[in-house]
Design goal:
Layout: H1 10-41, H2 53-64, E1 66-71, E2 78-83, E3 88-93, E4 98-107, E5 113-118, E6 126-132, E7 138-140, E8 161-166, E9 176-178
Parallel strand pairs: 4-9
Antiparallel strand pairs: 1-2, 1-8, 2-3, 3-4, 4-5, 5-6, 6-7, 7-8
């Protein structure tokens, strides 16, 4: 066998290295472009200038649907909310076996946006405020929102920030759900 068979001359080696470098650069550029395209193809829905108030409310309601969790900084309990498309709200803490089932209403035109949590007894309604963060979490003022009191105007420094942990709208089966106005 000819020993020169496995030898590349200098021009062949240079060409091979240049082609390899170009291919690696091309793969790198394509990866970046594809990732940007995926992000642009699946953005977080944002209201446009032509979005009507009803469309905006529906958009916000879609963002709210699912199972949300936050840790209460005061006592380290995990707070859970499930919001459904038919305006039902379920709320419980991890350590409890009892949860509250209520209705809710959203006003996305107000700044900050408003959320009314409505039990069977309307005098026990909780009027509060919320906002969606840039990373898709929900800042919900529940610390300074109490039944029968006026809606807070601003977020407190210890307002919990809820993360959506799933799209589920079905509450756990091992928890008993009650209306808070039944606990009088």
């Amino acid at each position: 066998m000819n020993k020169n068979y496995f030898k590349l001359n200098r021009s062949q080696l240079t060409f091979h290295v240049k082609v390899r470098t170009v291919l690696i650069s091309l793969v790198f550029v394509v990866t970046i472009v594809v990732k940007q395209g995926i992000v642009k193809a699946n953005p977080t829905p944002q209201p446009s200038q032509t979005t009507s108030p009803i469309q905006l409310t529906n958009l916000i309601k879609q963002q709210l649907i699912g199972h949300w969790q936050a840790k209460n900084l005061a006592n380290s309990q995990v707070i859970n909310f499930i919001l459904t498309p038919d305006e039902k709200l379920f709320m419980w803490v991890e350590s409890g076996k009892v949860a509250y089932g209520m209705n809710y209403k959203v006003n996305s035109e107000a700044k900050p946006m408003q959320l009314d949590i409505i039990p069977k007894d309307p005098s026990q309604k909780v009027e509060t405020i919320f906002e969606m963060t840039a990373d898709g979490r929900m800042r919900l003022e529940i610390i300074n929102a109490n039944p029968g009191q006026s809606r807070p105007n601003n977020f407190s420094t210890d307002t919990p920030i809820f993360a959506r942990i799933s799209q589920t709208t079905v509450p756990p089966k091992n928890i008993k759900f009650i209306d808070p106005s039944d606990r009088k």
